[in-house]
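Holo prediction — nicotinamide-adenine-dinucleotide.
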Amino acid sequence: MLRQIAEKIVQAQRTVVFVGAGVSTESGIPDFRSPGGIWTRFDPEEFTYQNFLASERARERYWQLGREIYALIKAAQPNAAHLAIAEMERMGLLDCLITQNIDGLHFKAGNTPEKVIEIHGTVMYVLCLTCRKRYSRDEIELRLAAGEKVPRCDECGGLLKPATVAFGQPMPERETAEAFRRSAASDLFICIGSSLVVHPAAQLPVVAKDNGAFLVIINRDPTTCDSIADVVHRGLAGPAMEEIMRYVKEMKP
Ligand code: NAD
């Protein structure tokens, strides 16, 4: 089955890789829904965009959780799955990578910004919700470490928030439109490490399939799109992608 996926990668004209939190668990960043995942310890209802806007206490809690996640992400290194996807780009075998992840590990692995669509934003920046001024996360981290609990914009006094998409927050328009366009135009669509329950991102494989793409799913557990996929590989992302790329290199040295 992994050899068949490799053949498809070599033959395809426009391969879109679509990843979720499961691609980064082997780097030590927990996903949301697995046992021990983030939402088994925090209540997702509490960390909505609406709550963030509504109360200082909610913002303080949001930044507390954010700092915990950021520390984990900063220390993390790309794993075999990230490296395999970066290798696909280097070999000219990747139309684009659509990621739901906010951890920036694809860039550490070697993917370039031109090929990556971050539909749920990134933890690497912080944005002012009023004037849109952009800060590096490390700069804000220093302010938090120095005792600020809820940082505000030094230009306009507006609320600062990590440049990630919180529950209830609108998706970034340009990235979302581009992700749908590229999915519809793909002839091979590979989902890796996503439960495919978060919408609208989970629509992307359906759009790809409806427009004629060959749909591959690589995931440890069942997903909502298994029944429409052409190939489902149930397993870990790192070892699967490593083996797929080994076959690819045999076929296309
Ligand atoms: P999810 O938590 O809903 O699902 C993750 C899926 O990955 C599960 O189905 C699980 O079976 C699978 N999985 C876990 N480890 C795996 C591995 N090593 N190999 C293969 N499969 C594995 O995550 P999701 O569908 O991506 O959606 C949740 C949202 O969480 C996303 O929108 C994303 O923005 C956010 N998120 C991001 C990060 C990150 O940036 N690393 C981490 C947690 C959550």
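READOUT: Residues 56-75 form the longest helix (20 residues).
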